[in-house]
Structures are given as structure tokens and as C-alpha cells.
Design a protein that fits this description.
- Among the domains are: about 80 residues; about 30 residues, no CATH class.
- The chain is mostly helical.
- The relative contact order is 0.06.
- It starts with a helix and ends in a 26-residue tail after the last strand.
- The chain contains 2 helices and 4 strands.
- A hairpin with a 6-residue loop joins strand 3 and strand 4.
- The strands form 2 sheets. The chain has a two-stranded antiparallel sheet with strand order 1-2. It has a two-stranded antiparallel sheet with strand order 3-4.
- Helix 1 packs antiparallel against helix 2.
- The structure holds zinc ion (2 copies).
- One zinc ion binds next to loops.
Length: about 170
């Protein structure tokens, strides 16, 4: 028994580490895309602000409002980008020193550059929503187990399940 258990465990471990790697790369490129999209957004907002200010230059209140709105939005995007950059670092098992901003090991307790003690960063756990469900299977709404879509009632917990809707999602098969 134990022998076969070991083998199947090893196989699933190998598969999951490959999946993790692919996931990581996909995530990283997605995050980087959002970063550059946000940068473009900010550039655009500067341009629009300029136009608004010119158009409303006779009304000081309107101009100030336009500037404040724009600054708020830009601030928001910049914060988002900051978080995205941290996320990318974390994907690569790195983080930024809170003191000198050096890129250091995510598990480092002290910054090797400046010696500052670090807040411990736990590697992010995969969100359960992101787990890949094989074709023809679905997640039971009752117990969360992966079951065949043909079952209306979960064989494990008896919960009634709606078969997943076939979405017109664009599948990226390059
Ligand atoms: Zn440091
Ligand atoms: Zn169930």
C-alpha cells in the first residue's frame, strides 16, 4: 500500500510544481501588463487634465476640482502599481526593504544592505478560486470537491449542483 501511495504522491507533487511554475509566469506577465496599462492610463490623465484646466481656466473652483480629482485617481493608480510591483517581487520570492528599498529575499529577517529588521512576508497561498478544474468536472457547491458535471447531486455530500454554464470565454491557444 505505502509504496503505491508514495509513487502517486510523488507524481502529483511533480505535476503541481510544474503547474505552479506556469501559473507564476502567467501571473507575472499579467501583472506586468496591468502595470504598463496603468502607466498609460496615468499619462492619458495628465493630458486630459491639461485640456480640462484650459477649458475651465475662467473658473478657479472647477480647475481646482479637476486637479484634485485627477490627483486622487493618479494616486490610486500609483498605489495599485506599488502593490503590483510588490506582488511581482513576491512571486519571485523577493521583497523590498522597508528602509532602503533594496530587493531582498522574501524570507530575510534583516536587510543585507542596511541591516534593518524586516516585517515577515508569508508567501501568498493560492486562492481557491484560481484552481484549475478539469473539463467535464465542476466544484460541488456543497462540499467543494471536484465532481463530474453530469452529476446533479454530489455523490459525496448530496448537494444539488447546476452544471457550469459554457462561457463564451476567449481561450488563449497560441
Ligand atoms: Zn535595507
Ligand atoms: Zn458535495
Amino acid at each position: 500500500m505505502g509504496f503505491f501511495d508514495d509513487i502517486s504522491k510523488k507524481v502529483s507533487e511533480t505535476t503541481s510544481s510544474i503547474n505552479e511554475k506556469t501559473n507564476k509566469m502567467a501571473k507575472e506577465s499579467k501583472l506586468k501588463k496591468t502595470l504598463s496599462e496603468n502607466d498609460t492610463k496615468v499619462e492619458k490623465m495628465y493630458g486630459e487634465l491639461g485640456k480640462t484646466v484650459l477649458a475651465k481656466r475662467n473658473n478657479k473652483d472647477d480647475v481646482m476640482k479637476a486637479i484634485n480629482d485627477c490627483v486622487d485617481k493618479i494616486e490610486e493608480i500609483k498605489n495599485e502599481n506599488e502593490k503590483i510591483r510588490e506582488e511581482i517581487l513576491l512571486l519571485n520570492n523577493k521583497k523590498k526593504c522597508t528602509n532602503c528599498s533594496a530587493e531582498i529575499d522574501a524570507q530575510a529577517a534583516f536587510c543585507p544592505e542596511c541591516g534593518k529588521e524586516q516585517i515577515k512576508v508569508e508567501p501568498k497561498k493560492e486562492e481557491p478560486e484560481e484552481e484549475k478544474i478539469p473539463e467535464g468536472k465542476m466544484k460541488c457547491s456543497g462540499c467543494g470537491e471536484i465532481i463530474e458535471t453530469k452529476y446533479t447531486f454530489c455523490p459525496l455530500c448530496g448537494a444539488k449542483n447546476e452544471p457550469p454554464a459554457v462561457e463564451g470565454e476567449v481561450v488563449d491557444n497560441k
